[in-house]
User: Fold this.
Amino acid sequence: MQPDLTAYQIQPLSVTIPDLPIGYQLDRDRFQVLPTYRSGTAIVIGNDATVVLDGTLIDRNGAPLALLAGEIVRLDRKGVPVGEFFTNRQGRFRIEGVGPGSFELRLAGDPTANAQIVIPPKTKGVFVIGEVKLATAAADEN
Assistant:
């Protein structure tokens, strides 16, 4: 609650949440409000991104796909990109800001290199998916 805002003037408002749980993220933390006399304003904070996805990308032979970049796309919302990721030398990746639903991991520079994953409903925090196998010949060359 912010009771000291001046009516009819645009006011900047910053939001902080010191104990934000793992997996949750704020999509915005700064707002501009224009209160009227004796009014209130509801501000929606955050989104449905409650999961940190943790896994390892591997090729068809089970070898880790090291030092690659890609993006994660939400399939159940018409292919909306959610974020980008990078694999380390062991093929491991962590992607923050995802939520439950159907997704596709796509490697940068190779549209045929992808893998579909599903995060179950009501999942929160770190979701360890384990090994994710990409089905493409181009990924096997790395």
Notes: The longest strand covers residues 125-133.
